[in-house]
């Protein structure tokens, strides 16, 4: 075109050239043509805005929208639909409101695609009320409008509102599509109402629609969260029979179930499926496999998986270190930790929790203390309540209760059930009632923001039959305005 001296302004050739470069991801060339074009039209702006958004550059996309606002070019409905999607990508509700204001001023709110994009933006950015206001004033609604609004409520955990809209949509003659059904199934499954989710799942299949991978994963996840392990594993077989291939999300969730119910047999079957699906190289799947074998007591199988993984991330190392620690192979855990650092993998909070726990169970007090006190200087990790609980347990197991008391006294974070429980248990084992009473007095005087420490103290007094002290602790909790959620049983 350049060598033949083609008139680039004719037939909007500049805009089409910008579109060609932008859609192929060659933004340097697209921007060069954009800058050299004197009479930019809306199509040139739309191409840059949409292509940048599609290729993962939402900030640059918004930048071109701002440039459009400064020019004399008038945006169209496609511009607004894309920009609202960019606001979702940025999770920028304020920018979304600005765009909505512009849409209203220019009279584009009556456009179906723009209204749908507004509902989607408000819903995904967490403002269901604004989404409903847009939905209510729409003169025309299609399946996208209804589904976006249903999703908005489900995303906020308001599944009853989603159900009302779902039924109302059907009464108005709008037939739900597979995505609408998926939203309802996922919403109920996430809430743990697996029976209702399965009812929708069954109805969807009966109406000739095929549940997709997301729906199957939601159902399986719902059963896992509801601790209905057998049904979760059974769904995997149904999924395979339906011709839907599980992915890493499906399999990592089910492996956690096998670990919880100590079913190495089911875990090995899933392991075989992972090989057949060629997902063994996935670090998250491999880490879940290691953890599953660890929980089922098969350290050798866990090590075999760890050794086979070609690319290990910190989760893989953590799983194997945790496995060794759980089964008392403390020296192996420490050596693996050292090897991890040698290979340039930086430990995280979970790594150090696993290592401290291993030292505690193995009685390696000095090694554990050395790791704990050097956490921030050596690894840049500030100690959390989990780390403190491990080190208190470490000291109490060997009777170093004064040292444990000093750690509790100087803690920069609040005491928790596990910390206090470990300390009082140590005091009981080593007959140090003086220290337990000292800590109890300190806890009662602490300006706690959460009731965990006081609840633990009350429970310990109750276990000793010291009901007067229990009453004293309960009175302190009332004075501080703490309300403990009552426990309940499904039985």
TrEMBL record:
Keywords (A to Z) from UniProt: Repeat
Pfam families tied to this protein: E_motif (PF20431), PPR (PF01535), PPR_2 (PF13041)
PPR repeat windows: 142-176, 177-211, 212-246, 313-347
NCBIfam families, per the entry: PPR
Protein name: Pentatricopeptide repeat-containing protein
Organism classification: Eukaryota, Viridiplantae, Streptophyta, Embryophyta, Tracheophyta
């Amino acid at each position: 075109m350049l060598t033949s001296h083609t008139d680039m302004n004719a037939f909007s050739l500049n805009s089409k050239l910008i579109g060609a470069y932008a859609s192929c991801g060659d933004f340097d060339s697209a921007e060069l043509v954009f800058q050299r074009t004197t009479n930019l039209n809306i199509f040139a702006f739309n191409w840059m805005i949409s292509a940048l958004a599609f290729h993962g550059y939402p900030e640059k996309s918004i930048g071109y929208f701002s440039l459009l606002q400064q020019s004399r070019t008038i945006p169209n409905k496609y511009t607004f639909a894309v920009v609202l999607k960019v606001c979702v990508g940025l999770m920028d509700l304020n920018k979304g409101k600005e765009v909505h204001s512009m849409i209203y001023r220019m009279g584009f709110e009556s456009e179906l695609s723009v209204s749908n994009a507004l509902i989607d933006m408000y819903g995904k950015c967490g403002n269901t009320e604004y989404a409903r206001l847009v939905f209510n004033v729409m003169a025309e609604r299609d399946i996208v409008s209804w589904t976006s609004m249903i999703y908005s409520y489900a995303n906020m955990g308001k599944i009853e509102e989603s159900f009302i809209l779902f039924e109302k949509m059907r009464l108005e003659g709008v037939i739900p599509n597979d995505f609408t059904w998926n939203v309802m199934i996922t919403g109920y499954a996430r809430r743990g109402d697996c029976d209702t989710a399965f009812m929708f799942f069954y109805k969807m299949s009966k109406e000739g629609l095929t549940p997709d991978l997301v729906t199957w994963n939601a159902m399986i996840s719902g059963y896992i969260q509801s601790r209905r392990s057998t049904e979760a594993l059974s769904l995997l077989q149904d999924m395979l029979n339906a011709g839907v291939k599980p992915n890493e999300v499906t399999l990592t969730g089910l492996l956690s179930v096998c670990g919880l119910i100590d079913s190495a047999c089911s875990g090995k079957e899933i392991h075989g499926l992972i090989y057949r699906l060629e997902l063994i190289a996935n670090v998250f799947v491999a880490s879940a496999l290691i953890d599953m074998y660890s929980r089922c007591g098969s350290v050798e199988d866990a090590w075999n998986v760890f050794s086979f993984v070609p690319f290990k991330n910190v989760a893989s190392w953590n799983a194997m270190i945790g496995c060794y620690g759980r089964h008392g192979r403390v020296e192996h855990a420490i050596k693996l930790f050292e090897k991890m650092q040698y290979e340039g993998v930086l430990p995280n909070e979970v790594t150090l929790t696993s290592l401290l726990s291993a030292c505690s169970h193995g009685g390696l007090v000095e090694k554990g203390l050395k790791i704990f006190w050097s956490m921030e200087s050596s690894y840049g990790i500030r100690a959390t309540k989990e780390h403190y609980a491990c080190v208190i347990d470490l000291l109490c197991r060997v009777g170093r209760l004064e040292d444990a008391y000093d750690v509790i006294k100087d803690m920069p974070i609040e005491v928790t059930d596990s910390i206090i429980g470990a300390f009082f248990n140590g005091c009981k084992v080593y007959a140090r009632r003086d220290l337990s009473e000292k800590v109890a007095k300190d806890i009662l005087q602490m300006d706690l923001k959460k009731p965990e420490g006081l609840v633990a103290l009350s429970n310990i007094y109750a276990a000793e039959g010291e009901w007067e002290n229990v009453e004293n602790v309960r009175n302190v909790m009332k004075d501080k305005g703490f309300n403990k959620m009552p426990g309940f049983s499904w039985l």
